[in-house]
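Recall that a protein's primary structure is simply its ordered list of amino acids. Everything else, from secondary elements to tertiary packing, is in principle encoded there. The following example makes that idea concrete.
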Amino acid sequence: MSSFENNNDTSKANIMNATMIERSIDDWLSHDDKTIHYIMYADNKIARKAGEEFAKDYIKSQSTNNKKKYKGVAIFSSDFTRARETASIFCESLQKANIPVYSDDIIVEKRLRERYFGELNGGSDTRYQEVWDIDINNPDHDEFKVESANSVLERTTKLITELDAQLSNGGSDDGTCWMCVLVAHGDVLQIMQTGFLKHEDAARHRSLEHLETSTIRELLLA
C-alpha cells in the first residue's frame, strides 16, 4: 500500500478498509450453511502428526451421532515452499485415513502468502517487532515498505468469503459442505483472525493467542 501525504487521506483509507472488511464479514454471515475453516501454521517437520490427529478428530466428528456432516476436507496453502510441503504432508495423512480431499490434492492460493516485510525481508526476525509496534497505532502504515496489516486482513477476508461460497452446500441435495484447512504463516494467520473476531481493523493482531507451528485452530466468528 502506498504512503499517504496527509492525515485526511489516511483517515479516508482507514474508513474504506474497515468498510470493505465489515462488508466481507457480513457477506459471510449471510450464508445459511457456512463452511468450517481451520488455520494451520506451516511446519513440515511435524505436519504428519498434525494430519493424523486431525484425521482422527474428523472421523470421530462424522459419527452417526453428529448431525453436521461434511463431504471431506479442502486444503488451501500459501505458495511458499514450507507451506506447500506442510500442506502436502497433511493431505497425505488425510488420504491415508480415507478422508475425501477436495480436488484430490492441495490447492495453492497466493493470498495466503506471508505478509511482505519490505526492507526487513531476509533480515533478522527480531526487527519485525518494530513493524508490529507501529501496527498498533496505524494498521495502514507501510514503514520499511511493508505490506500494511489492514491490507493483509483485506486479502484474507476476501479469500475466506470466496471459499465459503465455493465450498458451502451450494444447493447440494444432501446439504453437506466441505471442511476447509488453510495452511499459511505466522503474521498472515494472526491478522486473519482479527477479521473473525470482528475487530475494527488489524491493529491488535499481536495481542491474540500465538499460533504454534503445525497447530490447527478453528476460526470462529465472535
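The chain has a mean pLDDT of 82. Strands lie at 37-41, 70-77, 107-108, 177-184, 216-218.
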